[in-house]
Amino acid sequence: MTESGKEINHLDIAKIIDEGDSELLKKLPRFVIKLIAKIVRQDEMNRILHKYPDVIGIDFLDAMIREFNLKLEIEGKENLPENGKCFFVANHPMGVIDGLVLGSTVFEKYGSFKAIASEAFMFLSQVHQFIAVVNVFEHSSKEYVKALENTYNSEISITHFPAGEVSRLYNWKVQDSPWQKSFITKALSSKRDIVPIYFYNRNSSWFYLIYLLRWLFHIKVNLEYLLLPHEMLRKRNKTIKVKIGKPLPYRMFDESLSHWDWAQKVRSYVYELGSNKL
Questions:
Q1: pLDDT at 15 over 80
Q2: Cβ count near 73 (within 10 Å)
């Protein structure tokens, strides 16, 4: 609350656009910005966040899991290594829910973690302590690059969704786009084993239909991204199923393949984990 008693919005689309790097978004008329705020269900998300103004860190993650009444079914916790200096990498089918569950699971085991995430999450003060920022749309600032390198070189557990975006419909399957190679490169340089994790859930058919229509009509603006808060709210009272695989030692990522190819190998391994082929 402010001194005047007015509630502060945790999610403020207009402010995010005004303080962002996109000159195109800054030129949008105000009525369009208000429409975007309505589509992302800004008011409803803020009503939820206003219930937990002083809850931060792991308490906030757990509060969100309770708020959405998520039932977690996590298979393979025995595969989590005792040494938490690893990359915990996963497919990314749902969005924020994936991050909540992955972060909570890793924290439960190791007592801390850092999540490689976009700058957008810095607008949510409750999770600042967990975020290692990578700007997926623009070049990262020197401050962010330095903080990210410090994270890689630390002993802390790192959670990561290497696709860099939520799963879409590719080749008529709900799956991630090709994984970025950086986690292989950093696993080698920081001597981190990789723990593969698979999420079974998915978003609504409407989410994937919007993506297909955008692709069909060559629309570059990521319209389905605006639906992610709506998809998050749809997960109320759902069961979230997760499977954790055995760690992959960083030494296995030798010069027989490029870092890009190794990243796709790990991606394939994660999906095989989810299909019970392993």
A1: no
A2: 10
C-alpha closest to that of 68 among 105, 111, 100? 100
Angle at the Cα of 51 from the Cα atoms of 19 and 1, rounded to 5 degrees? 55
Helices of type H across 169-252: 182-189, 205-216, 228-233
Amino acid making up residue 253: F
Spell 30-52 as b/e; 16+ CB within 10 A means b: eeebeebbeebbbeebbebbeee
What letter does residue 177 receive in the DSSP assignment?
P
* pLDDT for the residue 6: 45
Model confidence pLDDT, tens digit, residues 68-82: 999 999 999 999 999
Spatial separation of the C-alpha atoms in residues 181 and 203, rounded to whole Å: 25
Structure tokens at 136: 């997926």
Q: For residue 188, give the H/E element and its range.
A: helix 182-189
Is 236's pLDDT higher than 50?
Answer: yes
Which structural domains are found in the chain, ordered by start? 52-274 (3.40.1130)
**pTM greater than 0.90 (yes/no):** no
* Angstrom distance (rounded) from CA 228 to CA 96: 8
> What's phi and psi for 275, nearest 5 deg?
-90, 5
Place of tokens 């981190």: 192
Q: Which residues, 6+ apart, have CB-to-CB distance to 277 below 8 Å?
A: none
The tokens 């020197």 sit on which residue?
142
Q: What share of the chain is helix, strand, coil (3-state, %, to 5)?
A: 45, 15, 40
